[in-house]
Amino acid sequence: MSLFWAITSAIGMYRTELVLFHFSHCSYPLRINGNCNEAARASEKWLLEAANHDKKRRAVFMGLKAGELTAACYPDADIFHLRVCDDFMNYLFNLDDWLDEFDVEGTIGMRACCIGAMRDPIGFDTDKKAGEMTKSFFARFMQTAGPGCRERFIHSMDLFFKAVSQQALDRVQGMIPDLESYISTRRDTSGCKPCFQLIEFAARIDLPQEVVEHPIIQSLEEATNDLVTWSNDLFSYNVEQARSDTHNMVSVIMQENGIDLQETVEIVGQHCKASIERFEADRQLVPSWGQEIDRNVALYIDGLQNWIVGSLHWSFDSERYSGKHGHQIKKHRVVKLLPKEV
Hints:
Blueprint: E1 5-10, E2 15-20, H1 36-51, H2 55-62, H3 66-73, H4 79-99, H5 104-119, H6 129-141, H7 147-173, H8 179-189, H9 192-203, H10 209-212, H11 215-242, H12 249-257, H13 261-283, H14 291-317, H15 326-332, E3 334-336
Antiparallel strand pairs: 1-2, 2-3
């Protein structure tokens, strides 16, 4: 996988293009779960029945292909665990789209509903679509997730909602945060953290607290989160700039440094490269906790690696950022910038 971005402008033709060129920094093998199609199609049906989208939203959702992302990130999960991961992934993307339309108060209300449903997926009373979907996938998640994994998942989702509330406030105020503040918030709005708990769930492991609190494990998670998030900011920049959405590292760096798009995307590309280098360096420093725990830690780190490579490939396969042009972009590395929405 090669990822790097430059920009060329054809001013006379009133056209601007993003051009990808070689920057080889991810050579991890891509593995796809053999249960992909069965679980993905069932999960899509589940989401569409639960969300009750109109025709336009249904069409957009079907281009997401979250099941294909999940199959690449959890390649060894059995059908039951993969399906739960699929449902969460579809739920998370759908939730993200809903929350883009919410103000701060609405986001806080959604947080109370969804976290309440996770705390009591059987008895929690709600008639909200998001709450009902939360109860559905989380009740199945609880069947095999260990107690530590469950609590970490709920905590990660709470951080997600809090960060999205900050994003909503920034949107209302028309504010672009500084880079340091953006990175801190983005590590939670990305939704990566609960997805990392699904690595434990899918592998049927529950890492001890001493492991998850170790600085090297936390650094490996942060490096993975950063790669997934910052590369996503590059992939999604085109559609986001068209709708004037500035919750994106490209927009933040341009605003903070007063530099042009070409220089900015090169900087973001370097950040992506550095995150994989950090991941590999940290991997060499993982301590030992004994044979059984070390085996589970190795499974977890392999799961983080799957997220790095799986997310990169999926970004071309999905229609979320490039419509039906993803494979052409992957081949020729040229992205035409969309016009601003009126």
